[in-house]
Amino acid sequence: MKQTKRQPRRQSHPFRRRIITLSTLALLLLIGLSGFVYYQYKTQHTVSREDVTGDSKYKNITSTTKKESSSVYTLTVEYPNTGNQKIDQTARAAIDQDVSDYRGSFDAKGSVPATPFVFHGSYQVPFMNDAYLSLVVTDMYDVHGAHPAQLSHFWTFDRKTGETISTSQLFKNNKGSEALLAAVRAAVKSYDANKGGVLTDADVAETVTADAIADFVVMDANDIGFEFASGSVAPESDGVISVKIPAKTLISELKPELAKSLFDVELPVAEQPTAAHDADCPAKCVALTFDDGPGRYTEQLLTTLSQNHAHATFFTLGPNVAANPSTVKHAIELGNEVGNHTWSHAQLSTLSDAQVMLEIERTNNALVAATGVKPTLLRPPYGDANARVYADAQKEGLAAIQWSVDTRDWQDRNSDIVCTRAVSGARPGAIILMHDIHPTTVNAIPCVIKSISALGYKMVTIHQLLGDTQPGKVYFSAK
Ligand code: NI
User: Per-residue pLDDT for 238 more than 90?
Assistant: First the structure.
């Protein structure tokens, strides 16, 4: 019985031991497992951080460099401190968004990579002066996908307000923005062509939009620049696309003041803002032209024209322009056109080329000084010109404007006669010659306007009548 009693004990001992052994093993396993988990946790989440602010390579700009690293990822970002909080915040927001996208893309993977993921962000200041600053932020991150992500952000800022200067602000009107868009599209297309060429015009038109070029940077002092992130306007394999459009190619469209402070370009004197060719012309138009002024009756004439919604072209003599600059300016402001009638009312065919050019240039200079506008039209005094004179005019950027109707108003100082001759000469596209230095002529204009209007003609400027004129070419009327 003792034995039978013992036996269960004997049997129970190994059983207990087994339980103890199992629990010990389980405990050890648990400790080991949690140790492993802890190790995993530690390697994934123990991050060494460092934030350092120091000088940048740019004057009066410092950089705050943020560094983080663990076995999962590394992060190195440079934030600019430009002295304007709003600028710094704009850059920081863009960088932080990229960092957040980066973290999001590896948090989703949830495992420790063989080599840590990498983020590297930096910035460049391709342009700055006291008033403006261009900034390019380039963020690259590699989470072991097909391609590393290459992102870029770029702006030009007003340093005082911290506001961005948009591309459209560069131009006088929409024509400039459209010309730039076309140039950028062509540049992207040719960039892609060099990389093998997969983009069609339609593809480029779809990705390179007005929005895509809403911001810009000044590059190399002369270029309107864009840094397109990889995959944003062209295939990802093309990488970041840097496009530079020389500002001088769009110079006539740029706002002179802004262009002067942003680009190292020589600004030409503005060409006369010519009204577009009138669609009713030449069939229902004639051009009234007035030579030898401006003079003491010119303001009266401007009033008559303006009250009757008529426009005219004034071929001015340099000394008279210098004497009456405000009248010339006023003429342009009212929508009239102003051209060059030489300095000394010279018979140009009798002069040397150098003398012809001097006659033209002196008056051009007087007009530019008075109005800021460089003329594109020349009326040779007496209509006297030859191929050589026209070639000289071409060098000065001027088309020669003769006439089809001569009122001989200098001969007959009689308003009724002047009116009759002007009206009887009215034909589609006619160019009518008069002189605003004679009061009889100026007094004839209400009759001229009334009678010519009654015939169904509008009175327009030379450029409204002819459309674009060609330097060196001679025009007698619009046909
Ligand atoms: Ni004359």
Answer: no
Distance 434 CA to ligand 1 centre (A): 9
Half-sphere exposure of 351 (CA within 13 A, CB side): 22
424 vs 167: CA distance, rounded Å? 52
How many Å lie between the centroid of ligand 1 and the Cα of residue 381?
A: 5
Q: How far apart are CA 208 and CA 182, in angstroms?
A: 9
Distance between Cα 407 and ligand 1 center (Å): 13
Measured distance CA(121)–CA(78) in Å, rounded: 6
| One-letter identity of residue 11 | Q
Across 48-52, 130-134, 285-289, 342-346, least confident range: 48-52
435 C-alpha to ligand 1 centroid (Å): 7
- Spell out the residues 6+ positions from residue 409 whose beta carbon is closer than 8 angstroms to its own: 418, 421, 434, 435, 438, 440, 441, 444
Please name the residue that has the structure tokens 């089809």: 404
Q: What is the pLDDT of residues 314-358, one digit of tens each?
A: 999 999 999 999 999 999 999 999 999 999 999 999 999 999 999
Report, as an integer, the average pLDDT of 221-234: 90
* Contacts for 332 with CB less than 8 Å, ≥ 6 apart: 272, 338, 371, 373
Catalytic residues, by residue number, are 291, 435
Measured in Å, residue 264 CA sits from the centre of ligand 1 at: 41
Ligand 1 mean position to 337 CA, how many Å?
16
* Nearest Cα residue to 229 out of 75, 104, 94: 94
- Please state, in angstroms and rounded to a whole number, the distance separating the CA atoms of residues 135 and 57: 13
Is there a contact between 118 and 142 (Cβ–Cβ < 8 Å)? yes
**Å from CA of 282 to ligand 1 middle:** 25
Please give the average per-residue pLDDT across 222-227, as a whole number: 94
Q: Give me the amino acid identity at 1.
A: M
pTM above 0.70, yes or no: no
Q: 294 with 328: CB under 8 angstroms?
A: yes
Report pLDDT for 49: 86
Return d(Cα 182, Cα 179) in angstroms, integer.
5
In 3D space, the residue among 94, 335, 127, 289 whose CA is nearest the CA of residue 216 turns out to be 127
Q: Burial letters for 86-95: b for 16+ Cβ neighbours within 10 Å, e otherwise?
A: ebbebbbebb
Q: What is the DSSP string of 71-136?
A: SSEEEEEEEEE-S-HHHHHHHHHHHHHHHHHHHHHHHTT-S--SS-EEEEEEEEEEEE-SSEEEEE
Whether the pLDDT of residue 373 is over 90: the answer is no
Q: Residue 372 and residue 321: Cα distance in Å, rounded?
A: 13
Minimum mean pLDDT among 142-156, 266-280, 289-303, 332-346: which range?
A: 266-280
Mean pLDDT of the chain: 89
What count of other Cβ atoms lies within 10 Å of the Cβ of residue 269? 16
